[in-house]
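Appendix B: complex inputs.
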Amino acid sequence: MTENKTKEKIKKIKEQRPSLKKELEGAVSGKGSIKIAVLKRMAKYLLRHKPMLILCFTIMIVSNVLSLAAPKLSQKAIDAIEPGVGAVDFHAVFYYAVLMLIFYAVSAALSYLLAVMMVRLSQKIIYTMRKQLFDHLSELPVSFFDTHATGEIISRISYDIDTVNTSLSHDLLQVCASVVTVIGSLIMMASISPVLLLVFVITVPMSIGYTKFRSTRVRPLFRRRSQKLGELNGYAEEMLSGQKTIRAYSREQVITDRFDAKNEEAVNAYYVAEYYAGTVGPTVNFVNNLSLSLVTMLGGIFFLFFSLNAAGEAAIPVMFTISLGGINAFVQYSRKFAGPINEFANIVSDLQSACAAAEKVFTIIDTPPEKPDAPGALTLNGVRGEVELDHVRFGYVPERTIIKDLSIKADKGSLVAIVGPTGAGKTTIINLLMRFYDVDSGRILIDGHEIREVTRDSLRGAFTMVLQDTWLFHGSIYDNITYGKEGATREEVINAAKMARIHNYIESLPDGYDTILSDDGVNISKGHKQLITIARAMLADTPMLILDEATSNVDSRTEQQIQKAMYALMEGRTCFVIAHRLSTIQNADVILVVKDGNVIEQGNHESLMAQKGFYYSLYHSQFDN
Amino acid sequence: MKLLFKYLRSMRGFIALTLTVKAAGSLIELAIPYILGHILDYVVPERSVEKIVFWGAVMIVCALLACLGNITANRMAARVARNTTRKIRHALFDRTMRLSSRQIDAFTIPSLESRLTSDTYHVHHFMGMSMRMGIRAPMLLIGGIIITLTLDWVLALVMLVTLPLIAISVTVISRKGVPLFKQTQRSVDRMVGVVREDAQGIRVIKALSKVDYERRRYDTANKQLVKDEKRAGTTMALSNPLVTFFLNLGLVAVIVTGAFLVNGDLSQTGKIISFIQYFTMISNAMIALSRIFVNASKGIASAHRIAEVINTEPDLEVLPADSFNAPERDPALIRFEDVSFSYIGKSDNLSHVSFELKRGESLGIIGATGSGKTTLVQLLMRLYDVNEGSVRIGGRDVRTIPHEELNTMFGVVMQNDFIYAGTVRDNIDFGRGLDDDTICRALEIAQAAEFVGGFDDGLDHHLNSKGTNLSGGQRQRLLISRAIAGDPQILVLDDSSSALDYKTDSKLRKAIRENMSDVTTVTVAQRVSSIMHCDVILVLDEGKIIGKGTHEELLADCDVYKEISDSQIGGAFLD
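Resulting structure:
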């Protein structure tokens, strides 16, 4: 019965979840190669800005070279001081000092330029990513929003994208720059002593291996971290929306305790991730220090051993000879070499959290959007407004049918009222008419065109909806009213507001039509909000109307006052009305009594009353007390 | 910043330990290059392989110790950050839950939300980072300065002259940064706001084919955010090159001064050379420090936003019982005495409202949209304080009744009341520890037992956030169950049966009358049938009472009421 339907609906939604989860798992698993795939996809965003990237890279190299050259200059300046008391070559000292100043100034300017360019680059990427995600979100079917918490979506578009971006713009570029340094110092070291280089053959794989081993362990921890944070955010959002109720019931403590539990999970997930990720840096550092020690020891021994022999015998393999200065230089370069590798460990841990975040973002981007319009879909034009539902069958999931076999025919300009107990599928009919969901079998025809063969925009554009749950966005009242019809004149807007009996109220506000409605609109009542949406509907001129409890929040006096306007609005349009109040329904051309997904009675008021059936009993229930 | 210190204080012992371990680790690590220098300068010339191996082994041991020390310190730092964040987030959430409606209105919900989420996250990140990196850099800096001073104090002073310059520029930049990051955070709020709105209004957007419009709207918010982020980023990017440049300026000054000193036999070239070595160390430390500052301004901006909420003075204080001369024994349970109220202090939303209601009586409130019905109820529950007059319950002004006591008097269903993700039981119990019998009885009275019984898992049935897997009527009945379950003295139903069909609505009223006869009910409704049987009915219009009495009385002498009634009776219908 009624309850069964709701039950089914709930089950259906529940069942949708695991399937989504599976999808998610499928995207994530990919047999471990996922990380590369995700990285590649992330890198694509970077590569889109090749010229800028190349420019950044060039500047980076130039400023690196400059920073290498400056010490040389200072060396020369000091050389000029070298001769000692009274013999300092001041001319040379000043010459090099000035040169140094110029070099430093240029290098400072360049590094500022580089930083600014990096900011720009990263903002370009983050802009694109956010835009892409939002654009995709707006293409997703309504069912996505029915099954995903708003807080979760917000977490993706703010926190996760931020994380991805930080690592992309900063780390990847740094990796490129490090490669240059690493290769450069490798060459220098090889030229000093190829044998000592063998030390790195042992230690570098050690640190790479360790980093890799860690990253496989740490990555799921980071994923968990961002998941837990998302859950916490979702919970906070939910409870904030009910804050008044919570306070009215003095439930602050209980709710805070529950929040604490979520908070605990979130901070612990963060902690656990840090706990393991925090070992990477020091460990890699240790490996570097180890190689430094080995180089020093071996270098020292080589020096002793081979230089000793060098005095007596001639046949010493050249590759083993080394001078003290050579060891010194080798150590210097090995430091340069180790720096980026050390940094690399940090970058890897950043990349891990970025990958985890990116996966989540990509999961949304990969969620299939609303099916595109059929090829060659018709654009509805000059719609007459004949609507026919032909043996429609529908369930939100295949196993649970909500609407079993529904046939309705509405002529142009007719008023179709839908009544029935809660959960009988009234709202579902609207979901189908608007193609928020597609029918499982049967057809819906508008002017004889199957709606799946018509473009969605033109189909939806042919309807105007006023729903029980009013929706207004952050913006002026004016913008909210013109929402359904861009470019409406001020006169038209005021006219619509007058018809909806909201003009006087709007004028009484300090900013009139320019009053900004903030989210969760502070002191605008549900009734006023609904009147604004009615004004919006009045302004939009469409051949078909859907009124789902359109005046449920408006008091009946006002309702009566706008009645005339409502009739004018309905005049000549095909209307689907779901309402409590008979005043609207009584003169409907067809009243459909829907129960359990079927039309059980059909006719006008008089004929249904004469039938003495379900409708009759509903009608009389209002006099019971 | 004050906020952070306040919460860090309780962990100061542990923090000190963390910093000590970190310092020890850093010191040991710093010893490695010195040992290296020692080996090359002194050990190798001694030509002893054993000694080389010995000192090499010392290096390795140091490396190992440094590694262990740093890992431990990092983990300890993560722990401090975790504990502190947990506390801050708790305090923030707790305070948020206790904010008065007026304060919530001022902050706005989205802004509170982003403070709870992204701001606490930034603070968490900032704390962890500053402890991991904030020790090593100052150590190197101070150590470097001390060594250079002992080396040659004149040259050291020449170099140090640039430090104030650096300090000033870093301070100026990070000062500038704080408001920029605050602005950025505001833009984040806006951007998130659009996403939230659109996620909720997706049906309307799709219906009106406004996807492109919304994209543009989002794009505007996105662009603004990018612009702000760019500005903040560009400003902060100045610090690194500036610091480096000033340091290098110092270096040049040292060389030139050195040249004069050497020429006058006041110093040696060798000193200048080692000076430059330490100089590199100092400048690296300086750069690391300034980087911490940059991050700090982001963390501080967030901490400010959090502190704003936490430090909000509680309003709606409970006043001493004798603040208002109350009648000793008031025969009325609820009494409004000449109450006036305004939300924003301009025009009155309620003016000069007076009425009384005895225990067990029922009150119905009807009137046009915006006539002040909800406002009246909110004043009764003291969600806001009156501007004039007095609201009394049992003779006591509501401002003198402790919140907890006041709240337990009421069972309330508000307009747009909320259902959260959880089981049916959770939502009705609402953390009050009610037993299943009480809950079931409430469900019976609220006419919800039937549909809840229809769930396979009954009370354990899972509800989505905002009750999206329920119909409007089911949602309202659950909310009414919640209100009834606490066995309140006063039951407040603010437009909470609008989605019920008339049949269920009348059954509901009957059940309440029969089962809760000593409960005083206050019903706000649009439908006359919902309130026509009330003992007292108030008709409100633009904040004033224009009719008061029973259904029959009002039909006789209140035109507005008669008009409403005529339009509905016989015209009402089931949904």
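Chain A has 21 helices and twelve strands.
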